Amino acid sequence: MGNQDRNRSDISRDKMLSGSAWMTAGSILSRFLGAVYIIPWSIWFGNYFLRGNALYGLGYNIYSFFLIVAIAGIPSAIAKQVAHYNALNEYGVGVRLYKRGLVLAVSTGVVSAAVLYFGAPLIDGGNPNVIPVLHSLAWAILIIPTMSLTRGYFQGYQQMAPSAISQFVEQLVRVIYMLVTAFLIMQVFHGDWVKAVSQSTFAAFVGAVAGMLTLAWYYLRRREDFRSLIAHSNNQLKVEPKALYQEIIVQAVPFIILGAGITIFMLIDQFTFFKVMKLATNYSNNMLSDLYALFAVNANKLIMITISLSSALAITAVPLLSIALTNGDRREISRQNSNVLTLFLFVMIPAALGMCAISGPLNRLFYGQAQQALGANLLTFSSIISIPMGLFVVTSAMMQGLSQNKRAVKFFAIGTIVKLIFQWPCIYYLGSFGPLISTGLGLGVANWLIIRSLNRQFGFDRRMLDIGFRKIAKYSLFMYAASLMTVYAANFLLKFVADPFDRIPSLIVTILAVAVGGYIYIYLALKSRVADMILGARTEKLRKLLRIP
């Protein structure tokens, strides 16, 4: 019996790692493309860069909230419920769920797009330049809910490749359109920077069309496989259409609230930062816009690369936990929870500390030398705050996978109240760092409540978490120190041949520091065998490749 449990656990872990690998690759490549475009984009915008980036962020935060409402949590709910019915060998019910979900996705997409387009003048925050940006973003909301739903359907079958590849294609096409239009408007025609930003945001629609076409291609390729599964399933469970809609909506509402968690915190920042800073300082609107861009757009764009690692884990964990819950296997739930948290620590802590170490050259590489000292400090601080942000993405997904929806929403609400309590004093006394601190406090409280609840109900493998955390934290600190020393040494040597604060030298320093720090962390994790505990037997091949005894 013990061997069977271990084999089942190994299979679940392999599924989680395989799924996470696909989703991580797709998320990181997409986030990387979504950040690296800023280098030519900033050069072409010239003196309008920070203002244009702030406008981009102001529009995108509102759009993100509307998009989450339009998507309505349906994709994650579909992934969870499809996995549930597949575990019962009732594949036909999952297909009917998908079809009913499509009706909801199209409806919410049309309504949300219309509200955003026609309601733009009411939510522009007093900045008329935001209106054309919101108009351009409304078109994407027509398509993205259906695209996200289809990704959720694939994920319910633990087929993560279609989601990951379509995500990458979507981002690639979006970035190409952004750069082409920015170059033409700003450099060739010397046009209006607001129009250039509006075209950059309209790129979301162009990318969504490409992503949807990619998913359609995958679906057509695998259509016969889906039909075969339906034909050989039990086909004994009958669920009425009304019950299917109710099931989707009941599961989806918490996904809306929790999926919008980080976006809600960003909107709180957006609608409070300018007002509080005007009370605390005599800065001009342009100066406040530049400061907002530094912490809410520039730093956020980079830390979202690391947070995307958490999103990949969360997407993979939900259907696997749903299957374990359906089978009534509490021991497997405990193992899955422990695996997810340990894998999160293994990836997120070194990623966050690594970004701290290279914040100076990384900030200069992407954003040039404008406000470089403050920008680098904000990126350092944001990198630390990315840990509770990423942890919330993972822990809230775990709660939802285990049908702890109401409790998860309650814990998030408490965290939001904490954020609101500290928001005003933090901004008033700490300026641009204030919103980051209040976010860390709010999500820290929410995470603590969620983890405590999971531990009381299902328990964790404490030995695994304890060993994992202590060793991962220690190795991450070694990596941080090595990366930081590499940055200082490389800057010192480069100043004899070039300005180390230019973009190309900053790129060289960033690559060197990442290579040194990354190798040290991987070496220590493999040498100590802590990687084996988290990743399983596959680490042996990597150890042989790197010649680590």
From TrEMBL:
Q: Which InterPro entries match?
A: PG_synth_SpoVB, Poly_Biosynth_Transport, Polysacc_synth
Q: How does it sit in the membrane?
A: Multi-pass membrane protein
Q: Which GO terms describe its cellular component?
A: plasma membrane
The UniProt transmembrane annotation reads 21-40, 60-79, 100-118, 130-150, 171-190, 202-220, 248-268, 302-328, 340-362, 374-399, 411-430, 436-454, 475-498, 504-526
Keywords, in A-Z order: Cell membrane, Membrane, Transmembrane, Transmembrane helix
Localisation: Cell membrane
Name of this protein: Transporter
Q: Which organism is this protein's natural source?
A: Lentilactobacillus rapi
**Lineage, highest ranks first:** Bacteria, Bacillati, Bacillota, Bacilli, Lactobacillales
